[in-house]
Amino acid sequence: MQLLMTLVCSVVVILLVLLWEHPKGTALAAIGTPGMLLGAWAWALWWRNRAVETQLREMTEQQRRRDVVTGMLNHYALHELLEQKLSQAAEQECPLSIIRIDLDRFALFNATYGHAAGDDLLRQVGRTIQTFLPPEVTAGRYDSDEFLIILPGTTRGQAMTIARHLREKIRQTTLAQSANGQAIPITASIGVACFPTDATSAHALLSAAEDAISAARQSGSGVADTRSSWRTRYRIRVDGAFSTLEAMVIAIDNKDHYTRRHSEEVTEYAQWIAEELGLSDEEKHLLRLAGLVHDVGKIGIPDDVLLKPDMLTADEYETMKQHAVLGAVMLAALPGMEPIVPIVRSHHERWDGKGYPDGLAGEEIPFLARLLAVADAFSAMTADRPYRRGMDWQSALAELRRQRGKQFDPLMVDAFIAAANKRGYARHRGEEEELLAAA
Q1: Are residues 135 and 184 in the same domain?
Q2: Which terminus of the chain is more solvent-facing, meaning fewer CB atoms within 10 Å of its CB: N or C?
Q3: The overall pTM is greater than 0.85
Q4: Judging by beta carbons within 10 Å of its beta carbon (0-12, 13-18, 19+), is residue 174 exposed, middle or buried?
Q5: Exposed, middle or buried: residue 30 (CB in 10 Å: 0-12, 13-18, 19+)?
Q6: Structural domain includes residue 427
Q7: E strands, 223-352, where?
Q8: DSSP state, 71?
Q9: Are 209 and 279 members of one domain?
Q10: Residues whose CB falls within 8 Å of the CB of residue 16, separated by 6 or more in sequence, listed in order
Q11: What is residue 385's predicted lDDT score, i.e. its pLDDT?
Q12: Which of 41, 64, 87 is the last residue of a domain?
């Protein structure tokens, strides 16, 4: 590069000399040949130095973004890129997953074999990651013993599959042989976190993946997602609370038969959305529980309000709105129900912030509560009530479209409409039989 710069400068000098030689008698001729040469060399050297400085700045910037041991992107570059990719994912309303890889017992490895061997291990793992992943996927060294992979457009299930295969590749890697001739094993614990289901900011998503790493170590599986940190505890404790949950569902069914049927429909519709979005089995499990008990707080609503055959007055409606908080309080008292409490409390919040009980807006509303809100509203709109007949499916779907970005999260509306289109409209209240009879 420096040779090229020198050649360019020399050409510039020659051109200037020729310009002075022809034509004669110009102002340039008055300067004289020595002055022309000196000025030309001064200008050429300034231009060359400026080009070299630009090149050095670019090299310095590249070095600032690269890990000196592995040559991969470093912590600074990865964090900056993750924020950019998250912003793009939010604009495009598509998922994004990260895989955080923590090398097991790396500090002990360094202490035993020395830092040179530790650097060799990092380089080997880095090469394994880069060889395994497609060239367009971003990966780098995030911390002293950690690597990070950013996967735009990747669902939780897809990221978990990649993580499991990658962990096996790392496990199969042999660094070298130790002093006694034995191969040095390489193992890693891997955590997966997903946007927007687990977090919506870079910091929160990275923290969620770190929690998943801890869960992977505790479970012995080596790979875990963000839900695994509570999975075992949750399932064990739910078994103990199941009889209480069942009693609540039976109690509300005995009090209001509509609520039981409505809850079952909400649960079904929520599963449609979950499948369309590619949510995990754990999230679907949460939605099944939350769907069945989301209106359990209506046990505490007076019968003259809950069972009123006419439209509610403004005061009665305020009383009815208390069921979201009552349900959350009741569930919070049960062991293992912590994950569904915010879903039940917030399933009547609105995307525009005009809902209840807390007036949350946008992504302040828990992700699964935003999902449940669409399922809940569609079931309510299509249900027959004493004071009105339910909408047909097409009218209800049209209303969801009108409220997209107002009452409801656009992502959830789009997912539900796509799921409904796949299943067809003629499934509600015996419409299949009506269509067959009409045929």
Answers
A1: yes
A2: C
A3: no
A4: exposed
A5: exposed
A6: yes
A7: 223-225
A8: -
A9: no
A10: 36, 39, 40
A11: 73
A12: 64
